[in-house]
Each structure stands twice: as C-alpha cells, then as structure tokens.
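Course assignment 3, question 2. Fill in each field.
Student: A.L.
Task: Predict the tertiary structure for the chain below.
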Amino acid sequence: MDKLLVRGGQRLDGEIHASGAKNAALPALIASLLADSPLQVGNIPHLRDITTTLELLQHLGASVQVDEKLAIQVDASQLRVLRAPYKLVRTMRASILVLGPLLARFGEAEVSLPGGCAIGSRPVNLHIKGLEMMGAEVDIAGGYIRARVPGGRLQGARILFDTSTVTGTENLMMAATLAEGVTVLENTAREPEVVDLARCLVSMGAKIEGAGSDIIRIQGVRKLHGAVHHVIPDRIEAATYLVAAAVTRGRIRVRGVKALFLDAVIGKLREAGASVDVAADGVELRMPDAPIQAVDIRTAPFPAFPTDMQAQFVLLNSIAHGTATITETVFDNRFMHVQELQRMGAQIEIRGNTVFVHGVDHLSGAQVMATDLRASACLVLAGLVAEGETAIDRIYHIDRGYESIEEKLAQCGAHIRRIPAPPARISVAG
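Answer field:
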C-alpha cells in the first residue's frame, strides 16, 4: 500500500482550489439510474469512491463516458442488472443509494449491505422503513437487501425520520421522484449536498420543494430525463485546508468554496485565534504567531459543526493553549484517530462520546495508520506540525475523499510526498 511521508515545521502559504464535493457527486451520479436519457455531471473530483461508483453503474448496465472537460456522462437507459454485488459495494457506504432509484424505476432491486469507513453502525433501517411505507416489500438475507414493489410503482407517503440522515433523505427523495402521488419527508437532513441532489433531480424533471429545510415535499412523475448538472465544491476539503493553515500558523486561500457552508467551522477557527476573510469566490485564513486557543466542539447535523471536521479539530486542540472537550453526537466509534495522535505525543482522554484534549508544546513525528477518511486527514495535519517525519500508512482511506492532497499541500509549501507501494513479490516454487 502507498504511504505518505510528511516532514513538519513548515508554515503553509498559498492558494488551493476546492475540488467538487464527493458527497454531492456520488448521489448525482447515482441519480442517473432514474433517467431514460443521459445525465452529465461536472466538477467531479478524481477519487477512489467516484471510480467505485462508476464501476457499479457500469455493472448495472449503464454506459459511462468522460468528455474533454472531465465531466462524466452516464446513460442508464438500457440497464440490464438490478443487483449491486458485495465486491463493488463493500468499500463504500454511499452505494446503498442505488436501492431507491432501482426500486422506483424498475420495481425491484437487490443491494449488498454496504461497507466503507468503520465509524459506527450507520444502519440502513431508516432507508428500509421508508421504502416499506411507500409500498415496497423488503427482505434482508445473506448480506443482501432484496426489495420489490408488488404493484410495480412506489406510492407516495408521509415519512418521519427518527433521526436526521443524509443518505436516508437522499435515497427516499430519489425513490419518491417516480412514486405515484405525493411524498412528504419530515426531519430531513439539511446538508448542502442534499440540496445539490434536489437541484440535480429538478433539472431532470422532478418536482421537489423544501430541500434545505426539515420537510421535503416530492410530487411523483412518470419519468425523468437526462440533464447537465455541476456539483458544489467540497466544504469539508476546504475546511480541512483552512485548519492546515491554522495549525501551521500560515496562510491559505481556498478558492471556489461557499463560505455559507462553513459558518460553524469558521466560527470555531476565529475562536481559536485565526483571522478569516470571506469573499464571494472563497475564504482566506491567516494565523498569527500568538498561541492557538483551545475550542470546545459538539458535532451535530448541518448547519451545526460537522462530524467530518471533528478529527481535524482534535488535532488543532492537541497543540492549542488550554484544554478542550469535543463531543461526537453523530457517529459512534469515531475517535479511532486518538490512539494514533497519542503515539505522536498528544494528551487526549476518551470518555464515552467525548474526548478531553490537553494542549501540548509539540508533537513528534511517528509511524501512524489511517483508520478512516477524516482520521487520515487529521494525521496528515499532525505530520505538518510535528517535529521530524511522520509516515502515514493505509492512505487508501484518504484517497477516497481528498483529491491530490499531497500536491495541493506541497504547492503551499508542505514537505510531503507519496511513497508508492513496492511491487508484489512473486515466489516460484522450485
């Protein structure tokens, strides 16, 4: 496996262009399953999860083309397969999103229970419950979700989510676009990526109101058509680079990102002592030489502080002045990065769903291992500020969500390089 080598002690200074949001691109590409003509999606980041999604769409029978501007066109008009196998689903939880569209358009689907980052159970029961309320018959056996619609077409329903869920909202919203009648989703996720998917679906002929609020109303239509859609910039990638500038006491301007999506993060960065300037075309952060101030964090669904930035702020607090508490309310088991930071000298205690971070003067480079996508980013940032060299293994996690992270950081002055995995040795019995 590839690894990253990071030598700390360098202030970052430069400009980075935000990539397209992975969490907006994936559902937009999957929305192509609803259409009877090609859907073109632009501003797609070059990530492993995108490649996996395209492989899954091709397995189902869709045609995939990439144009000269790197936009991706998906034609699912001639779908042949309604089964998403384990080998394609096991690495990516977002693959559950094919369930709703397949069921809505074809009346049946078989989807392997998904994999992805090991950060809690993230159950799919909310997806299944909603589809059952729309008339689907669902059975789980042998690691697969098997669903069918006896009448051939889903029926509109009023569905209240027990808890806010992004993929659950997206899955049922897509399913409802082709359902008969009106579907009302309550306690829905308000994330910008949900709004972006709704915008994509509307351009395909869907009738959706209320995306971005906690109640979404969908009037089902008989069919959807292809369209051209441009996904939003990645707010988590942008926020990660702003934190990188903060912890190295440097300056970074992230172009292309909408500051509106970063309000909670920007507020905490200012509380830590950073100077943050917001413009129409991006966000710039400067960190003075004064000590970083510890900041308390409590994660919650958008527009509150995002769980996907929790690990990065654990790192920031590790080198800050004072003690901070960080409470994780969205996912369980999302403190696996703590042990790796402790290897670098961080003083962190875990008590239930809260960590207590006591700032230290410095971290020391060490060999560490990425455990999930955002933990990977946290360890890269730790390497930027640690004394000596940090080697980060299992970086396939980071390749799932950060496009060319070593190149973007290097152009801002970071000492970081990728070490390719050695070729496999072949032994010959003699």
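Instructor remarks: The chain has a mean pLDDT of 93. DSSP finds 14 helices and 24 strands in the chain.
Grade: pending
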